[in-house]
């Protein structure tokens, strides 16, 4: 099968048609730090549907997202998840006994707490009668936790759901080699000294080589960074474009942090350490400094570097989701409605990170909206190259016709509405927790900026993706 890279280069004689429809310099931080003017919520139709329950986000919180190996390094994932749950309880004062179900997303599981949702819930003081389960769907695990909760409420099975996600990259499971594991299991079953000695005689030093986890596709054995490099090359995304976009993300995140806009972040007293109050990966640099970094994956010609990639992050998030009538009966003023959502999947080799491109037009059509109706875009930033490649794919009739079976492109998200408070490149990306951050960012931005509709989208390992429409709750 012809790859996107090969096909693109062979079949696009006019390479300029792939150029981002914005001057490269427009991605620089200086032109993007002006906040969108706040205004009254536009008078648009609501996405409420007859005979379908309205589902609302009452509120959501997250622990500060920290660089792996820093203040959270001695904790376990359920410690962070418990902190997010406790913070949600404090923020909302929701009675624990009315929560019908708890769902958490995670990716790299701690084997001692494989159902981290249940362990965190018990640790946070929820009743042992409250069911909880854990889901995993790579970078959209929290998205899956939320939409699973939406399904339970929409079907009438539940009224009150807590959904969230957690990741602790500071302490990931490292396994013995398969040969060593097999020997240890066989030794455990051996009944006689002779059987044990016979097994031990087969031991070799290379059995001690550990199996280290990697952010790589099982089906292709390719790391996500390698895929991002190839995707950037396929869509002619330059190193400068990627660095400028990353600088934009960090600069906007720093501005939002300084202005107190990241209101979903809760303080967390780390046992035996200081209280953590803010994300620590936000580090605006300069294009000159970023240009000095060497390629991280494809050497020496790659364009993906440590500066324009999301970093390994520890953190947890949690959201309180209810049927609207239940929330109002309890006296809550919800922040937003959770409306239509879609999941997509495509080729995990050549289209690993294009989930937003495929999911966006589908969710807009499902909701009866267009790109012009969206007031706040919140897309997951795995890599600058991934975001900019999605931009170019979304703005290409050729790509829509040849790869998506669509007559026309969906269009380019306007940068003045896009990730205005920073994104995963700067705020961090705990794999299992990012989805809730995206939804809360969209909900909070709509309230702050006076918009009505937000669009959340993300890519994920396995070539999968998710998109959801968030509607502001009337003031």
Describe the model.
The protein is α+β, with helices and mostly antiparallel strands. The chain has a single domain (55-172, 222-472), classed as Thiolase/Chalcone synthase (Peroxisomal Thiolase, Chain A, domain 1), CATH 3.40.47. The chain is built from 15 helices and twelve strands. Strands 1, 2, 3, 4, 5, 8, 9, 10, 11 and 12 form a ten-stranded mixed β-sheet that branches. The chain has a two-stranded antiparallel ribbon with strand order 6-7. A hairpin with a 5-residue loop joins β6 (268-269) and β7 (275-276). It is globular. The termini are far apart.
Q: What are the main properties of this structure?
A:
single chain, 475 residues, alpha+beta, ten-stranded mixed beta sheet, two-stranded antiparallel sheet, globular
């Amino acid at each position: 099968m012809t790859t996107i890279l090969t096909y693109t280069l062979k079949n696009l004689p006019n390479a300029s048609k792939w150029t981002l429809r914005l001057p490269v310099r427009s991605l620089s931080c200086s032109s993007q730090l002006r906040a969108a003017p706040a205004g009254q919520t536009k008078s648009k139709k609501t996405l409420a549907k007859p005979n379908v329950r309205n589902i609302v986000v009452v509120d959501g919180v997250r622990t500060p997202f920290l660089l792996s190996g820093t203040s959270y390094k001695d904790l376990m994932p359920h410690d962070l998840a418990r902190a997010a749950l406790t913070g949600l309880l404090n923020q909302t004062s929701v009675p624990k006994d009315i929560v019908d179900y708890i769902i958490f997303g995670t990716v790299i599981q701690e084997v001692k707490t494989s159902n981290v949702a249940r362990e965190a819930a018990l640790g946070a003081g929820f009743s042992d009668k409250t069911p909880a389960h854990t889901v995993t769907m790579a970078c959209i695990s929290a998205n899956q936790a939320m939409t699973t909760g939406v399904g339970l409420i929409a079907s009438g099975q539940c009224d009150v759901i807590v959904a969230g996600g957690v990741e602790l990259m500071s302490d990931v499971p490292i396994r013995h080699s398969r040969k060593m594991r097999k020997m240890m299991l066989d030794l455990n079953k051996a009944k006689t000294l002779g059987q044990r000695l016979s097994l031990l005689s087969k031991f070799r030093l290379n059995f001690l080589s550990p199996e280290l986890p990697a952010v790589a596709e099982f089906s292709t054995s390719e790391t996500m960074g390698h895929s991002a490099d190839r995707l950037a090359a396929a869509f002619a995304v330059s190193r400068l474009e990627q660095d400028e976009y990353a600088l934009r993300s960090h600069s906007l995140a720093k501005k939002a942090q300084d202005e107190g806009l990241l209101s979903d972040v809760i303080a967390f007293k780390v046992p035996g350490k200081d209280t953590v109050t803010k994300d620590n990966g936000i580090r605006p640099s300069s294009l000159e400094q970023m240009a000095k970094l060497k390629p991280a994956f494809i050497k020496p010609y790659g364009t993906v570097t440590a500066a324009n990639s999301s970093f390994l992050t520890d953190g947890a998030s949690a959201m309180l989701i209810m049927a609207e009538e239940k929330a109002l009966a309890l006296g809550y003023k919800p922040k937003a409605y959770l409306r239509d959502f879609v999941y997509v999947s495509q080729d995990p080799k050549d289209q690993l990170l294009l989930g937003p491109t495929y999911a966006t037009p589908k969710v807009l059509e499902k909701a009866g909206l267009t790109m012009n109706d969206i007031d706040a875009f919140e897309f997951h930033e795995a890599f600058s190259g991934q975001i900019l490649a999605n931009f170019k794919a979304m703005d290409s009739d050729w790509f829509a016709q040849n790869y998506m079976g669509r007559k026309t492109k969906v269009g380019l998200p306007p940068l003045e509405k896009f990730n205005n408070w920073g994104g995963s490149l700067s705020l961090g990306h705990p794999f299992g927790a990012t989805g809730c951050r995206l939804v809360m960012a969209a909900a909070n931005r709509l309230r702050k900026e006076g918009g009505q509709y937000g669009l959340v989208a993300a890519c994920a390992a396995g070539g999968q993706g998710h998109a959801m429409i968030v509607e502001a709750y009337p003031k």
